[in-house]
Amino acid sequence: MSAASYIGRVGGLAVALGVGTAIVTGQGVAYATPASDDGGTNVSSEGNSDGGGATNNTATNTATNTTPTTTTPDKRGPGKIDIKLPRLADIVGRHRADATTPGSVTATSIVKRFSDATKRVTDALEDIAAGGLNNVSVQSTSRTEKSSNSQERVAARSARTTKTTEAPTVTETTLTETNNPVGKTSANRLESARNWLASPQAAAGRAVETINPVPQPTKLWTPPRILAPFGTMQAAPDTAPTTSTSSLLTAVLDVVSPFAGNSPASPGVGSPLSWVLAGAARREIGIESFTPQALLAPSTNSLTYDPTVTLVKGVITGDNNGPTEGVNYFVVSQPSGGGKVYVDPQTGDFSFLPDLSSVQSGGTETFSVVVAETTPFTSAITGIPVVGSLASQVFVVLYQIPVVNVVLSPIIGRSQITSVPITVSQYVKEGQPVAFTVMVESFDGTLISTNYFPATRVASGDADVAPTILNGPGLATAGNIDPTAPNTVDGLVPGIDALRDAGYNVVTWDPRGEFASTGRLELDSPEFEGQDVKAIISWITDNPQYTRPAMETANDPWIGMVGGSYGGGIQLVTAAIDDRVDVIVPGIAWNKLNDSLYPHEAFKTAYSSLLLLGLVTAGARINPQIYGGIITGAVLGILTPGQQQLLARSGPWDLVGGIDIPTLFIQGTVDVLFPLQQALTNAETIGPNAEVSMIWFCGGHGFCLTLTPEQLAEQNELLLNNTIAWLNNTLPEADGNPYDEVDVPKFQFVDQNGTWYTADVLPIDSAFYAGGTPIVTNGSGGLLPIVPLLGGSGPQSAVSLPYSLGLGSQATNAINVPLNDPTTSGVQVVGAPQLTMTYSGIGTSRHVYAQIVDKKTGLVVGNIVTPLPVTLDGRTHTQTYQMEDIVWTYGDTVPDASDLELQIVSSATPFLNFTQYGFINVSSVSVSLPTPGPNVVEELADPSQQTVTVAA
Questions:
Q1: What residue spans carry the Basic and acidic residues bias annotation (predicted)?
Q2: Is the pLDDT of residue 851 over 90?
Q3: Cβ atoms of residues 839 and 826 within 8 Å
C-alpha cells in the first residue's frame, strides 16, 4: 500500500472518532451519510420469525446517487472506474461527514485539517523552490465420521443436494479511483511532490504507483451472471483547500497530529503539538537548520535494504541483509504487476505473491520498501493505542516527501527508499507450483482478490495435487499473505505454513469492499459475501491443478474452511449454501448479529464503534446503513426496524439448519462481542447429520486476563492441534490416502485457572447437567439510582482505551448480592446463570445490567455484562433473565472456595447510553448457577501433548 492512501484512511477515521466522542462525552457524534439519494434498485431480504418473535421484514437500502461511467481497467486491476475524487474534507470512508453537535470531535474539521495541512506542505515547498531549490532532487534506490475415499464417505458426500441461496437483483454503488502515477520520469522531484500532494489521489487517500504503469491482473475465471451489474457512484465536486501558511514545519506537524488543537488557530499559529515539536526541533538541530543551505547539505543516510531473493516452499521470499536494529520497514508501493508483498516491519524479510499473469509470463514486478530509523518520538507516538497505528502510517507518508523527509529526520528518523525488482522466471520454472494472487470475478462483477499457496508437498514436487483450505480473514483485515506467521486471530487460526505442512493448499482472500477487492461490504451476507466464496470455490473447481477432485467423475473438489470472527461467520454462510464444502472450523463466529450487537434491545455501543473504527481506518467501502445503525445506536441506544433487518440478513442464523458436514465450533469464554451462546445456538440449530464438536478457549473479542503467557501458548497449541486433526479426519492426504484418525473430544473448555476439561456431550444436551446441583442464592436487593457512567461497570482498567470500553469491571454504584458457595470443593459452573428479580422504579432507562464478580481479583467473570430489560413505570414487576454463559471452577477449600458476587448496575460502558436516567428498587433477587452432572467432565492432563498426523 502506498503512501498517499494513508492520508485518506486516517481522515476517514474521523467518523469513528466522532462516534467514540459521543460514547465518552455524550455531547455529539460525527454522522457519515451518502452525498445524495436516488430511486435505484434496492436490496431486499426476507426471513422467518426468530425465537424471540421478531419477524424479518423487507429491508431497503437507499443507494447513493449514481451516474453511469465508462469502465476502464485500472493499472492495478480490472473493473476500475475513472472518476474525479473530491478533497479530503468531503470524504470520510466513502461518504461525507455532515454535521456534529457542539462539543464533539467533528469528522469534517479533522479531515479538513488534513487537506489544509497538505496544502500548506505544498505551499511551503513552493516557497523553498522559489528560494533557489528548483533543481533539488532526492535519490531513491532501486478437510459424521472418519472420512477417506471409502464408498460410504463418497456416497454420503454425493448424496448431498446442492444448496443455493436465491440472490435478488440489486444495484450497488461502487467507487474506484483513478491511477495517476506521478514523479516517474520528471527530473524535478520537487515539482513531482507538488503535483502529487495537489492531486485528487492524495486528497482521496489513493495509492500512488511509483515504479511503472501496472498491467491488468489476470482474471482467470468468470462465472455466469446471477445479478445485474452494480452501478457507479458519482463523486462530489472537486474543491481545493484555501488555508495556507509559510511554515513548512507547522504544516507537516499538522499532518502528523490532526487531532491536536481543535480550536480555531490564530493566523500563522499551528496546533499545540506543533508548538512543542517545533521547540524540540529548535533545541535539537537549531532554527538555522531550516534553511535552503542546510537542506542542500549532503545526507549522511547510510541505511540499506539488500534482500536475497529465493524460492522457499513455493513462495518467493526475500531475506534482508540490511540493518535490523533500530529500524522499521514499510512497503511504499505494491508490486507493479498486480502482485502483493508482505514485509516484516522488524526484519525487512518479505514474501512476494506475483500476479498470476506474471507467473504465466515469467515477467518482472517491482515494489518499493522504505527503511526508517526509529526515534524516541516515533516510538512514543506509535505506542499510543489506535492513534499509534495511524501515526505510523503518516510517518510513511512523510518518509516519501522530498526535502521534508530530510528536514524532519531528527524527529522521525532518517529513511531510505529502495526499489526491488522481481523477475518471476528467475525463481520459478515453467509449470512449477508457486504462491500467487489472482482476481476472481463474483456473480455481480465484483472482483475478489484471491491468494493461492500450494501445499508443501505440492510445491516440492512430492505430490501433484492436494485438498484446499479456505482461510477467511477477520473484519477490516486483508487476506493473510504472510506464510511465516504461526497463527492468526491471536492464536485461534492456524497459520498458512502450518496448513501447508499438514498437506493442504491454502487460499486466502480480501472480502468484498475491503483492500484489493472491489464491491461494497455487506457483513457476510449470503447474497453477497457467500456468493463470493462460491465463486472462489468454482475457480478452484475449474482449475484442478490447484486442488484434488473429490470423485473422479464429479466436479467437486475437497474443500475445508478455517478462520475467525468475520472469517468464522463466512464459513457457516458458505457451508449452508454450497455443498462443495466438506468440513469447517468456525472460530468466534456469530449466529445472529441482532443477538450479538443488540441483545435484549440494548445496543452494544463500545464494540460497534470499534468495528466501525477498524473499517474506516482500513478504507473499507461500507453499506451506508451500517453507519446509520451505529450512529442511532450510539446516540439513542436503539436500532430501527430497517437497521435490525440489515443485521438479520448478515450472517448464518436462518441457514445453519442446512449444514450437514463436520463442524468444530471454537468460541471464547471472554468474548464480549459474540458470547458463548452464539456457538451454542449454532450447534443446537445445525443440520441433524452434522458431526459437531466445540471448544471454549480464553480469548475472542475481548481480553484473557487470567491466563499466564505460558498457559496462552499451551492454549494456542491445543487449538492448532485440534483444528488440524478435525480437518484430517475428513479430508484425504495429499497422496490420496486418509490421515490417521485423531480423536477430537466432543466438548473442551478452559476455566479461569487455565485448566482444561473435556466432556462427551455439549452443554446444549440435557445429559450435560443431569444429576448436577445448581448453586442457588436468594437475596434481598436495594435501591439503585440510574445515571450514565457514574459508578457503573467498565471500562476495564487492565486494558488500554478504547478496547477497555467493551469490557465489564467491578462497579461502585451497584446492588451487590454475595453468591453462596457449593457444599463441596472443585465444583464447576459451566453455562448461563439464571437471575430472577422483583423490582419497581421510575425513569427513562430501558435496562439495568448484571455481572458476576470475583472479589478476590476484582475481575468480572468473563469480562461480560448482561443487559436486563426493565419497565420503570412505578409498578412492581418480576422478571427472569438468562445471563451470559460463563466458566468458573471453585477452589479446593470450602467454605473459602470462592468470593463470587452478583452485581446489578445502572450503566455499563459496553452498552453506554446517555438517555438512561431514573431509579430502580429491587426487592428480591434469586440466582442459580448451572453445574455439570457427576462424572460428566474430566480434566485434560496436558493439552499441549495432543498430537496430529501431518503429511510426511
A1: 73-83
A2: yes
A3: no
